[in-house]
Every structure is written in C-alpha cells, then in structure tokens.
Specification:
Helix content: 40-55%
Structural class: alpha/beta
Oligomer: single chain
Shape: globular
Bound molecules: S-adenosylmethionine
CATH architecture of the largest domain: 3-Layer(aba) Sandwich
CATH topology of the largest domain: Rossmann fold
Order of helices and strands: HEHEHEHEHHHHHHHEHEHE
Amino acid sequence: MNYGEHFSVQKEDILNLLKSNFSLEGEYNFSDLTFGAGGHTLAIAELFPKSHIYSFDQDPDALSNGQKILKENSLEERVTLIDSNFENFSKKIPLNVKLDAVLLDAGVSSHQFDTGERGFSFRFEGPLDMRMNPNAETPNAADILATYSLGELQELFSLYGEEKFSKTIAKNIVEKRTQEPILTTKQLEDICFHSYPKKLRFGKISPATKVFQALRIKVNRELDVLSDVIGQVIPRLNCNGLFMIISFHSLEDRIVKHSFKSWKDDAYPIEVLTKKPILPSSDEIFKNSRSRSAKLRVIKKVNEWPSKNKYAKKE
Ligand SMILES: C[S@@+](CC[C@H](N)C(=O)[O-])C[C@H]1O[C@@H](n2cnc3c(N)ncnc32)[C@H](O)[C@@H]1O
C-alpha cells in the first residue's frame, strides 16, 4: 500500500517552537525519532536549510517511502534515515554529534493503521501481527493471544488498555483458543464484541478498541522504549536543546511528564517549557480527527539549574 494523504500532528506547534528557539540560518543537528511519512522531518528541513536531521524508523515501508521522498526533495545529503528502533538512539547517533532538538511523535502511523495486512485495525480483515517492524523476530499479537495465561491476558488488557471487561474478554479468548487458533483481526473483534454486555456493544468506542491498543503497546514494547529513550536523548542535547514529545494516550503522557520531571530534579539542568501540555487547535482536530488525543510536552536543556525558589534573585 502506498503512503496516502498524511497529516503530521501538531506540525505548526513544533515549527513555532523551533522558530522561537533557533535562528533560521543556523547550522543545527536535529533528530526525528519517528520519521513515519516524513512530514515533520521535511518541514523542519525546509524551515532550517542548513540543518542536518537524523531520522529513525523501524518500519520497512516507512523507510522505503522515506528514501523515495528524500530523493524527490533532494534531501539525501541533509537527512540521515536510520533503520532502527529508536531505543538504539545513543548507539546510532555518531558520538561526536550533539543535538539541538529532538522530536518524538509516538505510536503507530496512519499508514500502519490503514494497511489491513499489518493487523493494527479491526476495520479490516488481517493477520494479528501488529509489529511495527514485521522483520523483527519478536512475538506478534497472535503469539501473545496463543501463549499468555488467562491472568496475563486480563492484566495486559486492564493495564495497557484500561479495559473494564478485561476479565471476560480474557476468559473468552482462552476458551476460544481451545477450539481454534485466534489469528485474525476479525476473530478478535468478534470475541471482544460478544464479551461486552449487550447494551454496551454499540457505544461510541468499539468493544475491541482497548484490547487492540493494549496488544499493540505490548507487541512493540511502546512504553518501555519511550521511557528508555528519554534517558538517552537528554545527555546528548546541546545547551538550549529542545526535546519535544507528542503522546496519544494517558499511559504515554504519564511517562513523559514524570520522566521530564525526574530528569529535571536529578541529573541535568532542564527547564520544562510545558507545565501543561500543548494541545492541538480545534481547527487541527477538525481537519484530522486522529490528532484529538495528542499532547505535546517540551523540555529545554539549560546552562544552570533553574532556581527552585521563585523569589531568589538572579545574579
Ligand atoms: C505517528 S508516526 C510518525 C509520523 C511522522 N511524525 C510524520 O510526520 O509523518 C510513528 C512512526 O514512528 C515509527 N516508530 C514508532 N515507534 C518507533 C520506535 N520505537 N523506533 C523506531 N520507529 C518507531 C512507526 O513505525 C511510525 O512509522
């Protein structure tokens, strides 16, 4: 499937932050940890014509589309596309490179959601895969459904999906898999649907939504790699460097908020620029409903520890 029309979430917010912190003529090193359809990388490259961008993705589709668009935009020299999970950030960024701004736009791309064979969405019939890197030798969603115990499934749906009916869904999965293997998105959607009380089956959110979210997070270790990379990026930021993270659900946002706070308190002089996260405008949500749950948090590495005493005099 080709990359179709794509909206990069909170692109204007990201560009405004960069514009207000850096000179458009400056020579900077930036990193985009989640290249996807390349919307953020391309916009940043255009705005800062002397910058170099190190862009990561672990999805072979994103990478081959990326090579194509970098060529079309004559950006091969200025954007290094890195075929890797961003959990390898500190190994993949050359040791002599310090970064002026790093962006992480978490989660799954529209392309991944909308490609039935990837198994991310119950809108399409497809195999229960859900690996962002389908070449990785790691368990996919069907493997998890086949091997986890009832208790483990229940815990997964409840922790990562905040699913109210996790126990019934887990019980029905365990029962169903004794009759036939659960291998497709539609099989799982059907189990979730019949696990919900009849009067709640046709609500705004499908009974399968949270289970699919939980499985996807587990398959891709999304929360682990997110919290891990925050600790790798901060030491590699230049003074005045920004780290901008867009998250899409409360589990991710909690990690970002708490990690930023604990790094600020413990290890490096950091200023949290977003006491409250920056949210997409209503206009953006109208144009791209997938942006509605986005939250952008930003920190800046600074020269000195910001004073905890707001009445302290500046030198
Ligand atoms: C939300 S999309 C990013 C969209 C992008 N900002 C744009 O403007 O087109 C997320 C992308 O990041 C990739 N991704 C997510 N987690 C990753 C990880 N841990 N390592 C590398 N790539 C990851 C996904 O494969 C997907 O292509």
